[in-house]
Predict the structure.
Amino acid sequence: MTSTPKPISTVSTIPRNITKTWELPGGVHPAENKSQSLKLPLINCPLADEYILPLNQHIGAPSLPLVRVGDRVKKYQRIADAEGIFSASLHAPTSGLITAIEDRFIAHPSGLKAPCIVLQADGNDEACELIATENPYSLDHPTLIEKIRGAGLVGMGGAGFPSAVKLNPKSSTPIHTLIINGTECEPYITADDILMQTYAEEVIAGSQLLAHILGHSPQVIIGVEDNKPEAITALKAAAQNTNIQIASFPTKYPSGGEKQLIYILTGQEVASGQLPAALGIVLHNVGTTVAAWRAVRYGEPLIERITTIVGQALTTQRNMRVRIGTPIQHVLDHNGYNARRNASLIIGGPMMGFAIEQTSIPVVKTTNCLLVPSHAEMPPAPPAQACIRCGHCADACPAGLLPQQLYWYARADDHSKLKSHNLFDCIECGACAYVCPSTIPLVQYYRSAKGDIRQADLDKKKSDQARERFERRQERLAEEEAAKEAKRQERKAVAERNKARLADINAESTSNTANSRILNDLVANAVDAAAKQTPNPAQEHARLARTLESLNSRIARLEGQISSEQDETRREKFAAQIKQTQQSLNETQTKIAAIGTNTSTVIENQISKVTEKLNASPIDLAQKSLATLQKRLATAEEKWAEAKAEGKATADALTQGVEKLKQKVIEAEQALNAIQQSSAPQSPDQTVNAGTSNDAANAAIERAKQKAQAAAAMTPEQKQAAAIQSLEQRWLKAKERLAKAQEDNDENIEAFAASVEKLEQKMLALQAEGTS
Amino acid sequence: MLVWLINNPVWGALAVMALLSLVFGAVLGFAAVKYKVEGDPLVEQIDALLPQTQCGQCGHPGCKPYAQAIVDGEAINHCPPGGQSTINALADLLGVEAPSLDAEHGEVTDIKKVAFIREEDCIGCTKCIQACPVDAIVGAQKKMHTIIESECTGCDLCVEPCPVDCIDMLPVTQGVQQWSWQKPSNIIASDRTPAEAAA
């Protein structure tokens, strides 16, 4: 922006003068077109039959509905509550019946639907009782803020920022200036102008109230452009005997922007990415100011606003008090709307407004203007020509940006350059596009680039999160695998050592001393193993204590439920649960008592086992090992059969295990037969199904890869054929699975059957598509 | 010393050069040890550009392995979820010409999808949990599973292993909150076709 602020006009106001205003850098002077809507007086828009109330009419979280379909509501009744601080509540604009809470078209450039409460008016317009406050200054600060929050107040200039948030600044930044924005710089719109003319007293009263709420008795300035002489006169008359200053300054678009108006009135610039509150300034729209006064003084929630209805496609152009939620069609119909003459339907002004397609869209808290120009009034924009680098856009930019540079970077999707050229300081006023001799839709480039950057930032955040999760998962899998491997190695080592010792015993059976030494070693090993098996008594105690605690709390909870439950059968169920819980409680208590005594018994058991093993004759040992092996073989075979029947992926691995065991059994038998050999082959206690953990993800990747490779070379017809074929295969597979499930009487038969049916449907649909 | 240097300019110059090379060699050697970079920073940079869907369409079990493969010389156009913008970013980073996407690895889809488990059909087999590369599925043996939508990358890997075919890939709903302006269509007056110009 320009370097030295220079005063351009002196304003003579009653009672305290603003000595100077500053000139806004850049800006444009479009045709004002404000007179046509000011010829007729302000009237109320007649009641509509149906009101559509979007849950998100403001910046922040959507409101939470408080009513249900079928509820009767009265005018002013709260029908949706604010969700958190950055939100606003919503009130019924008239009495009637809630007929739906569903997605409807809303006033949004996307033309998408969003959740709305639909109210069928009963025509009585019956109001609920409001709590008026004779003297608002007698209320304390939290009550005042709560009243404003409860009235669902949002910034009515266009952004829809929840007003209560702005009125409750951090205590670290005291507010020394309150600016009331009556600038209304955009062509065609006169809603604030007529508001200031009609409700000048309330604007002043509201300004004083807002200043009071902000505390620290800030100076209050009402900024009005000099193209609204009647409004200025009315405000000055109303502001007599107050210390509110009315500042008027030359008309220029976009003086009404928040940061722009602050510069014009104070010469201070709000830093990039900061709020005016950082400078100790708060800014409110005149409409919001009046609504705040009415909310506190009369207890009136925000259910209507003044909207300018203007354009040559109407027979009457004027301002109306419109209830929030009134369908635009209804408003236009009351002003002689001629759809055939209408070029486009614009919400907001010609510079910053957006065109909509549906006329069923409702008026919301931020709808300050409905612009319905004729074809002659607003001809379609001529096609864009190449940029001739004239630099007019940079002269017009009120934010001091370089629109031409931003344009090139936006076209090139150069996000980092856009950020470094402060794209996000663009207020999308459209001054650059207005002056562009090549009629390039510059603002649309900036809006789209802003959206892309926001999306890219979100994606980045999400992908970082996905990366972290992926890496954590890999780590976890590696750890699990390592732990398994370590256990396997340990068992193997122990088994080998024992084998070697036994061989030693056999070799040196004559030497008693050696025998006893080895026995000692084995006993030591056994004690070690036993110690490993039994957990640390302290830890064990803590664990059991935790269990005990949770069981106790569970009993307490169940008892509470019993006392509050009326149903007899459910009470019995709870009683049974309590009994069960008590049983486990008792078990836990005995376990706690037994801690410590366990370790020694385990060790003794181990020792006796080892001694027995040592003392047993080789033939006994061989027989015993054969018996265990046979037993293991039996269980393995059983498992294998089960897996095969269920069609589990582990079946193959289990087959291997069974094979191995069979081999071992044969070996053991041979060993037993060869009685000369004193010891049967020790069976290493290895897990049989080492191969089962085949990574499902890897397999899926492999298959997907093959599929993609095949798909790359195919025509669309071939692709479809392939899709049908793969579905067919999946269908056959599913059928097979179902048959197996039926054979085994599997509990999931129904799920399998459903999947077969679904696949069949999918397949048929695809085939039908292919033939058509 | 100085006198000797003046008297023997050639030997003096040589001696000074030798001394300097020794000093610089020592400094560089020290720096090489002190500021040694563990791992390959290029892999990290490439990994940061990849979309992290971990979908395996490139033929590697995850985005990081593909980043490693790119460093080892694999082509940069094997990532369909990233699309052309990722290829461009990679080309920019590596200073090579940006190729178009290799159709062998799949096609670019603009519609973002997430997996959804039809919970009434789930039999609790845990197969999808084992397949999910980002642990976005919650569930246990014989208990119903569900997908954490905010964590799902839409990689598709859980669909195939499901024995009852209860996982669907649903497009992410585009509400008013997610919507953003589109770029103006890139037609300037001189680009118009004769038919358009006549009209």
